[in-house]
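User: Structure please.
Assistant: Input sequence and predicted structure:
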Amino acid sequence: MGFKGTKLEKKQNYDKKLCDLLEQYTQVLVCAADNVGSTQLQGIRKGLRPDSVVLMGKNTMMKRSIRLHAEKTGNDAYLNLMTLLVGNVGLIFTKGDLKEVSEEVAKYKVGAPARVGLVAPIDVVVPPGNTGLDPSQTSFFQVLNIPTKINKGTVEIVAPVELIHKGEKVGSSEAALLSKLGIRPFSYGLVVQSVYDNGSVFSPEVLDLTEDDLCARFAAGVSNVAALSLGISYPTLAAAPHMFANAYKNVVAVALATEYSFPQAEKVKEYLADPSKFAAAAPAAAAAVSSGSAAPAAAKVEEKAAEPEEESDDDMGFGLFD
């Protein structure tokens, strides 16, 4: 039941209500409310209770109340809401999870017919099939260049046709045809445009980010930092592993080119001295991947079998019975 009183009293009560909501809630969803009826809005209010409150009103009144409240409290973060109050919008104050509230709001959409002069929010495609209309109605289809045929005394659409494109205005012929076919192509409801959270404003697409998305973006950021650090030779924590790996490669290269050696370079020299070991190592590595924990056990068996055999450097790479 709405408040009854003078115009000034209504404004004062609205101002008090908005200021109280700003004090109680730190999260606000700014939603577009075009073509949303009062009955539909009432259903949204019921669905969002008790953690959320929907507040509608004129933009000028909301901006004035927000500005005065910011001046009174000294909290300029509220002023970020004023730039979002453009067009036919409403505010949803909530203490719940922003993603869940946004998904709940999206559920309350109702179908609507294509009215003449309305800007189409989506593409409208007329599907093929029997329309149930008698042959005298073919003039509608001919005007719109829709291929049809007469089947069992009724008009049948032969192929799907894009009747209206997104962003175009609905014409009288398109509206009349969709009405005859009983197609209600559009649906309307509150659409979240922006999110306000403790003074920060961001796009609602942020709410759809998952932990995997965050990890992937963090990894991409670390990769960029590492690449920049390596490019300008500036040490950072992200680039340190790559710097150590590159330094190790350089030291091994020096050891291979000279007589100098160290334990980590000995195995590389050993493989280069006997290239056949590369061929022997490849199947072993593949077996380790496929067999898992069975590979270490097999390696131990091979080592025990090879211990009694003393081979010279010339015999390396051959089997026991070669």
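DSSP finds eleven helices and twelve strands in the chain.
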